[in-house]
Each structure stands twice: as structure tokens, then as C-alpha cells.
Design a protein that fits this description.
By secondary structure, the chain is mainly α. The chain has helices at about 5-15, 20, 30-40, 75-85, 100-110, 140-150, 160-175, 175-195, 200-215, 220-240, 240-255, 260-270, 270-285, 285-300, 305-310, 315-330, 335-340, 345-360, 365-370, 380-400, 400-405, 410-415, 430-435, and strands at about 45-50, 60-65, 65-70, 90-95, 135-140. The chain folds into three domains: about 5-140, no CATH class; about 160-285; about 305-465, Leucine-rich Repeat Variant (Alpha Horseshoe). The chain is built from 23 helices and five strands.
Length: about 475
């Protein structure tokens, strides 16, 4: 990072602003400082860590991305160190593109006196995890010291991902049953600690490493037999939605060239990985993040039941994104549910649905599309014309195809051969799936967003506008 001393100085200045601790909006000067901080965070992830010497009275050292500032931290650096020590924070991680709002929340929390109600999360960091921040994580000093003592880690502070990688390497290299058992037990301890504090980087590292152990390890039979139950336990832990979601969050932070191993590990998890990807797609606040999750779901072909259920979500962009994905993933069993979305009050949802139905090209999809020639949206109208042409071209070769395709399927037929979420109209298992994704717009139109423009279904620019 360019000029870390300037970042530390600005952060310390914010900590000295009394308005933050009062829970009010930042002052004008603080607003300017926050803008500078967000400019710096565009350059990459930032790790602020404290190291302590062997002696109890040794002065703590402040490291920025692993580099000690030594005598360059200045008075504002001393303010930051004091705040981190007061809350027993071993490391403060600020991810790339962290917004000013989250930075101000962290400053406001650091200004307050910590509540020493107990140990760990209930003690030094009480209140931090309630903020539910996406771009800022903390590693607690007490938890870090306890974990390092338990695992035999000595020396200066190292990044959590490096600690995980060390034990993964030991597991890979194990030649005796006890060696692999110790390494995997350590990984289980680390995964639990880092997942409970919401640290996505070491959790993602653990998931990728676990997948690698399962598919690439060349253990002797006795070692593999010892490892098997521990690997199964670790996989079960990673299948928890909260843990899988941390790994998915890391996916959007990685460069495209670095994503394949994590994508493969999420695919190895199966539907738990798909559920986490769908959850992040629906909650993503930036175009870039939505594109990452969209592409991951399309590549892995996961999360189909949740995507089908999302077609009836009250937020139009959620239904639109789900419709577009189902078409790109070629989920032909979802044609009946997609046909239902041709009646959506939001034109952009109808456009995405029409494009997907045309891509699926099932008889039911084409017949339903051909009946929408009167739709005012140009994408829907063009798709309907294409569907009618395709049906006309098929008719001489297939005889009664058009008549069979235009016949409305019965409730029983929809349930048997419909979507992976249950097919048919609301109710039954499909209705229960919908309740897990969000409210159903079929009971009434969602709030009006106006008549949308004829944008391509992969244009995400106005999802929240």
C-alpha cells in the first residue's frame, strides 16, 4: 500500500474526533478524512496487526501488511495502537473497497470503552460482531494467543491464512497416522475460531486446502484411514451456510485468475455452496460482486431450487437475475415456472424470462412465448416472434407438436415434471421453498418501478436504482 504512515495518521485523527463516540454523524473534517481513507482502500486489502515481545512490559509493534512501522507511526499511530490494545485486537483487516460508512462504524466502536463481560467474543470485542460489517474483520488478541499456544505457534504474529496453510501443508506431507491426525485436528480448531469471528480469508484457504487434501493427497493406506473421519468432519463444518458464505464472500475479493481453486472447492461442497452463492447474489450491493456470483452459479450449475423459488421474489431484480441464470444454466425443467414470470408486472423481468425461455426451446416454453407477441417490451416481442418462427418451422416435421405445446399442463403434470423446486402454482413444497428465499409477488404486484428500459438481461447497472 502506498504511504501506510499517511493512512495510520488519518485513522488516528478520526479516533481523536469526539463526535464519533457520541454516535452522531461525523464532522466535516472527519468526512474529508473518511474520503481519503476510502481512496486508500481502493488499492487493496489492509492488515493492521500488533506484535508483542516476550516481555510483559515490551512495547507493542504496529505492522501494516506484515511490515513494521518502527519509529514511523507517529502520535496518531500511538492512538491507534492504544485503541487496538484496549479492545484486545491482534489484527484489524480492512478489505479492498471498504465504504466510508463501515470505516466510521469501526472508528466509533474503537472509541468506546470495551465491555469486559467475559472472554473472547463476549469480552474485548463485545458489540463489534453485532455491527455485521462486510468489509472489516478483527482477530481477538486473547483468542489468537490461546490458539497459537494450543497449536504450538511461536514467534511474531502471522496472517491467519498462513497459519491455516502451515497445517494444510503438514497434513499433505504426513507419512504417519498420528501426523495427519494432529494436523487435521489443528485445522478443525482454526476453522472454528476463524469462522466464529467472520474471517473469510482463512476460511476460504481452509476450504480450498481441504478439497485439495481429498482429491490430491497421496497418503499411505493407514494414513488415509486415519484421515477419513477427520476430513468428513471438516467437510460437514464447511457445509454450514455461515461457513460456506464466508468462503463465497472471499470469492468476490479475489482476482479472476485466483478464483478457480475456490470455485472448485465450492462446487465440491455441492448445494450448500450453491445456497451460499445464491444468498450472496441476492444480497450483493455492487455490480462487480453480482457478476462474480452470477458467473460462479452458471459455471457450477448449483442452487437451482433456490433460483426457481426466487422467481417469485417481490424484488424485481431478484426475480430478473434468477430468470436470467436459469436460462444460461439451461435448466429445462424450470420452463413452467419461467412461463409464469411472463406475466410479471416489471418489464425487465419479462425480458429476462423471454430470453431464457427462447434459450431453453422446450415445446412449452416456445408455445408460451409465441402467445406474447402483443407484449410492449421489444425484447419480449422479438423473443415471441422467434418462438413463433421456430414452432412454424417444426410443425411440418412433428405434426401435432404445436397443439401439444400450447395445451396448458395440468397441476399433476406440473408437479411431476416441473421445476426442481416442486413446479406448479404456489403451495406444497414449492411454497415452503419460496418462504426461505423471500416474499412472493404472486399474491399481488410488487412496488412499481416504472416501465423499464429495454436493457440486456445481463446489464446490472440499475438493479437498485
Amino acid at each position: 500500500m502506498r504511504a501506510p504512515e499517511a493512512f495510520i495518521r488519518a485513522f488516528g485523527q478520526l479516533l481523536c474526533d469526539p463526535r464519533g463516540s457520541q454516535g452522531s454523524a461525523p464532522s466535516e473534517a472527519a468526512l474529508g478524512t473518511l474520503r481519503r481513507l476510502t481512496t486508500w482502500t481502493q488499492q487493496g486489502e489492509l492488515h493492521l496487526a500488533l506484535t508483542r515481545g516476550a516481555g510483559a512490559d515490551d512495547e507493542p509493534e504496529l505492522l501494516v501488511n506484515g511490515v513494521p512501522l518502527s519509529g514511523r507511526r507517529g502520535p496518531m499511530g500511538d492512538v491507534l495502537v492504544a485503541a487496538l490494545e484496549r479492545h484486545d485486537i491482534a489484527q484489524l483487516t480492512i478489505r479492498q473497497h471498504a465504504p466510508a460508512r463501515e470505516l466510521f462504524q469501526v472508528v466509533r466502536w474503537l472509541q468506546r470503552e470495551p465491555t469486559r463481560a467475559g472472554a473472547g467474543r463476549a469480552g474485548g470485542a463485545q458489540g463489534f460482531f453485532a455491527l455485521a460489517l462486510w468489509y472489516v474483520d478483527v482477530t481477538l488478541g486473547g483468542e489468537e494467543r490461546a490458539a497459537r499456544s494450543t497449536l504450538g505457534v511461536q514467534g511474531p504474529f502471522v496472517q491467519p491464512s498462513q497459519v491455516v496453510a502451515r497445517h494444510l501443508a503438514a497434513a499433505h506431507a504426513a507419512t504417519k497416522p498420528n501426523e495427519v491426525r494432529v494436523a487435521l485436528l489443528a485445522l478443525d480448531t482454526l476453522l472454528d475460531a476463524y469462522a466464529s469471528t467472520g474471517q473469510c480469508c482463512p476460511v476460504a484457504t481452509a476450504l480450498v486446502g481441504l478439497h485439495s487434501l481429498v482429491v490430491e493427497s497421496r497418503w499411505m493406506p493407514a494414513v488415509r484411514e486415519t484421515a477419513a473421519p477427520h476430513l468428513a468432519c471438516l467437510r460437514t463444518r464447511c457445509e454450514d451456510l455461515a461457513v460456506a458464505s464466508l468462503a463465497v464472500r472471499r470469492l468476490a475479493e479475489l482476482a479472476p485468475s485466483a478464483r478457480p481453486p475456490l470455485l472448485a472447492a465450492l462446487g465440491w461442497l455441492g448445494e450448500p455452496g450453491g445456497a451460499a452463492l445464491v444468498a450472496h447474489l441476492l444480497a450483493a450491493e455492487t455490480l462487480a460482486a453480482r457478476r462474480v456470483y452470477f458467473d460462479a452459479l452458471r459455471t457450477l450449475r448449483l442452487g437451482v431450487p433456490l433460483l426457481v423459488a426466487a422467481l417469485r421474489h417481490t424484488q424485481w431484480y431478484v426475480a430478473r437475475n434468477a430468470a436470467a441464470l436459469l436460462g444460461e444454466m439451461q435448466v429445462t425443467d424450470a420452463d413452467a415456472e419461467l412461463v409464469f414470470c411472463l406475466d410479471h408486472p416489471e418489464p425487465r423481468v419479462r425480458a429476462a424470462t423471454a430470453t431464457s425461455l427462447l434459450a431453453l426451446r422446450t415445446p412449452h416454453a416456445l408455445a408460451a412465448l409465441a402467445a406474447r407477441l402483443g407484449d410492449e417490451h421489444p425484447v419480449v416481442h422479438a423473443s415471441a416472434a422467434s418462438a413463433a418462427a421456430l414452432l412454424s418451422a417444426r410443425k411440418p416435421a412433428t405434426g401435432a407438436l404445436h397443439g401439444a405445446a400450447t395445451e396448458e399442463p395440468s397441476e399433476g403434470a406440473s408437479g411431476a415434471g416441473g421445476s426442481p423446486a416442486g413446479g406448479g402454482r404456489p403451495g406444497g413444497s414449492r411454497g415452503r421453498a419460496l418462504s426461505a428465499v423471500g416474499p412472493d409477488w404472486s399474491g399481488g404486484p410488487p412496488p412499481s418501478h416504472g416501465r423499464g428500459r429495454s436493457d440486456d438481461v445481463t446489464d446490472w447497472g440499475d438493479d437498485y436504482g
